[in-house]
Amino acid sequence: MMQTTILLVPVLAGLILISSCRNTQEIKSLQNENSQLKTENEQLKAEYELLKTENEQLKGQVEIQKGITERVKYLVHQSMPEELRRLYDSSGISQTHEIDVCINPFYLVGDYDGDSKQDFVIPVLSKQSEARRFSTEVVLRGNGEVNWLDEDIGENRPGGVWTPVFRGAQVRDRLGYNAGQPAPILNADAFILARPQSSSALIYWHGNQFALYWLSD
Prior knowledge:
alpha+beta; four-stranded antiparallel sheet; elongated
């Protein structure tokens, strides 16, 4: 019995030593993992602070841009001809839309319906945030009526640049672009809408609304 006990002691001591080594290794492993996590956490904190700083800078830039935009809007409104301001306000469009200040010039003036009264064409943006990315042209006629080009000729038209065309100007036939239709005779002023290095079209008065005649595609 004494001999058995003596033999068990080294065995138990060995097992305890092995267990202790394993525990030590696991502790070291956990310490290493904890150290790595701590390092990663510090990196994430640094990245968060960097993003926070960049976000604040972007907010500042946005506020600056807003200020510039509001200043441009003010200058645009101040530089409006009195008759344009009157038609813009009396039509009610100023309540739902604002002039797209990215288009230069921001208005055209002429007798676009042939009634010898001064009309204006302006690009407008809806004040509803979801639709603000797209502007459309509206004709404020001197007789108080309003023509939206979206309604008269649809949305399939070029845009971005416009050029006035005066009454009586000769327009070359573009039969291939207009299903064989000859060029219109201009009994009123008109204007060209164009997309740079792409398509262009003549917008002219046709009876009781505006029509489109493609010039290039």
